[in-house]
């Protein structure tokens, strides 16, 4: 996929990742620490993790298409390199979701799970979740820098005047 209604597909698809990955990460962390949330949200976390995993290579492929059509720069190269790491974060979220599903099913079948298993799932979920959120931030920041440069827009008021 290259364009959607004249816009590069990457700039549309990237919003799926920007929303889904942090949302999945936060829900996975919550589910790993709060059993009531796990009982209600575990399947949602699993679906979101899989959707994020599916959308990641589609988005990066669209980004590689776009990269060939924009001016080459160090910022674009950095964004491309960081963007390629998103697949690892998406895989980590799927692993965390699978661990949560395993824990959930174990708790339902055996009326509980060992504390060590709960702690292990929590560690995996927290590490994968935080890494994914940081990764999305770094990738997005590098994409914004590649697109708009290092300009500081925070000093411009709503009317366009310095503020």
From TrEMBL:
<keyword id="KW-1133">Transmembrane helix</keyword>
<keyword id="KW-0472">Membrane</keyword>
<feature type="transmembrane region" description="Helical">
    <location>
        <begin position="41"/>
        <end position="59"/>
    </location>
</feature>
<dbReference type="InterPro" id="IPR019251">
    <property type="entry name" value="DUF2231_TM"/>
</dbReference>
<keyword id="KW-0812">Transmembrane</keyword>
<feature type="transmembrane region" description="Helical">
    <location>
        <begin position="86"/>
        <end position="105"/>
    </location>
</feature>
<protein>
    <recommendedName>
        <fullName>DUF2231 domain-containing protein</fullName>
    </recommendedName>
</protein>
<feature type="transmembrane region" description="Helical">
    <location>
        <begin position="117"/>
        <end position="139"/>
    </location>
</feature>
<dbReference type="Pfam" id="PF09990">
    <property type="entry name" value="DUF2231"/>
</dbReference>
<feature type="transmembrane region" description="Helical">
    <location>
        <begin position="12"/>
        <end position="34"/>
    </location>
</feature>
<feature type="domain" description="DUF2231">
    <location>
        <begin position="6"/>
        <end position="150"/>
    </location>
</feature>
């Amino acid at each position: 996929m290259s364009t959607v209604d004249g816009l590069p597909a990457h700039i549309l698809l990237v919003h799926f990742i920007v929303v889904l990955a942090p949302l999945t990460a936060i829900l996975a962390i919550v589910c790993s620490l709060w059993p009531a949330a796990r009982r209600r949200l575990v399947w949602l976390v699993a679906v979101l993790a899989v959707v994020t995993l599916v959308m990641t290579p589609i988005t990066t492929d669209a980004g590689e298409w776009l990269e060939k059509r924009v001016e080459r720069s160090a910022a674009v190269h950095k964004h491309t390199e960081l963007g390629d790491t998103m697949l690892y974060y998406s895989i980590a979220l799927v692993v965390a979701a699978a661990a949560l599903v395993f824990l959930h099913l174990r708790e339902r079948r055996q009326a509980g799970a060992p504390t060590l298993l709960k702690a292990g799932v929590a560690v995996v979920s927290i590490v994968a979740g935080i890494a994914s959120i940081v990764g999305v931030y770094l990738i997005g920041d590098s994409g914004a820098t590649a697109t708009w440069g290092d300009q500081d827009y925070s000093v411009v008021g709503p009317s366009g005047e310095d503020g």
